[in-house]
Amino acid sequence: MLELRPNCECCDVDLAPSARAFICSFECTYCEACATDTLKGVCPNCGGELVRRPVRPAGKLAKNPPSTVRVVKAEGCAPRSAA
């Protein structure tokens, strides 16, 4: 089951369970602005594709709440250069 991390790993903005969030296959989590503009759709940790995180149905959040553990890169995320 996905952790549904509460924040963007780059800029530390809060990401509600229903907000537009992006993840890689390792669940690194980013806000839409960082994922699309800064990172250009590529995870800086693993090099994997960033995709829209699924939204957990509201009725399932009580039994399966999102994570409260914040993961933040102290140095932020460097913009990905065009390849």
Task: Summarize this entry quickly.
This is DUF1272 domain-containing protein. This protein is mostly loops and 83 residues long. It is 13% helix and 10% strand.
Describe the structure.
This is DUF1272 domain-containing protein. The chain has helices at residues 32-38, 58-61, and strands at residues 21-23, 29-31, 51-52. The chain has 83 residues and is low in regular secondary structure. It has a single domain (1-73), classed as Herpes Virus-1, CATH 3.30.40. A three-stranded antiparallel β-sheet has the order 2-1-3. The longest helix has 7 residues, at 32-38. The mean pLDDT is 90.
Mean pLDDT figure: 90
Task: State the shape.
Answer: elongated
Sequence of strands across the biggest β-sheet: 2-1-3
Contiguous helical run count: 2
Uncertain parts? none
Strand content: 5-15%
Largest sheet: 3 strands, antiparallel
| Radius of gyration computed on alpha carbons | 12 Å
Number of domains: 1
Instruction: Give the number of DSSP strands.
Output: 3
Helix content: 10-25%
Distance between the termini: 34 Å
> What fold name goes in the CATH topology slot?
Herpes Virus-1
Query: What is the CATH-assigned architecture?
Result: 2-Layer Sandwich
Pfam families: DUF1272
InterPro entries: DUF1272
Organism: Siculibacillus lacustris
Protein name: DUF1272 domain-containing protein
